Amino acid sequence: MNHKFEDVEVKENGISLLEENLKRKRKKCMIGLGSMTDPYIEEELGLNYTRQALEIINKYGFGVTLITKSANVLRDLDLFEEINSKAKCVIQMTLTTYDEELCKKIEPNVSTTKERVEALKILRDEGIPTVVWLTPILPFINDTEENILGILNYCKEAKVFGIVCFGMGVTLREGNREYFYSQLDKKFPKLKERYIREYGNNYVANSGNDKKLMGLFHEFCERNGIVHDNEAIFNYLGLFEGKGISKQLSFFDLI
Hints:
- The chain is of the alpha/beta class.
- The chain is built from eleven helices and seven strands.
- The chain is globular and about 55 Å long.
């Protein structure tokens, strides 16, 4: 990037391009939002680009799935319900930290975990399927059994369809590694040196507790009927359903 991490560039013609493409597309499909930037960053509350995109998706009868860390997703609940009644809508929410104070420390300027979970419960009550992303899990910070179990119990309460997890750890690309280390220096003094000793310039920084925590994760999901096979979840997210869904599918509906 040639600008500050916090700066945001806006695609001013993004909405018009979306409509031009959807009105020409013959085959309906799922539209994904939020893969690169959260759809509900602060600027969205003034721009309303996400809502405008959802209105167009609804207008042309497509399905939608989006991923966020914000309880502001509930602002567009009316559109999610309408899309889901005609096609399919799935909301994905990232959860990483059960402890609220730690959440505020490592995920500032976004909704706290409890706020996100309350949003998941409201979506549940309104019949909107949900998926949780359990990532990143930061070594020496939130890679504990207590943290993972706390999040998993939240997911059980919210009756999420599935949980995406690629392992207990974090990926550090060149560029964002420097930013990550600068934040460690500010919030967890001396922890940067431990990361450097442990991982060097590795892209993947897996927790030393990875095997134990992944075992706990899979066992919990299996016991509670939560889909925990990443491929099955991605197949579900990409599957367009033309008449809406009255229930969240089970794993066995996907294989």
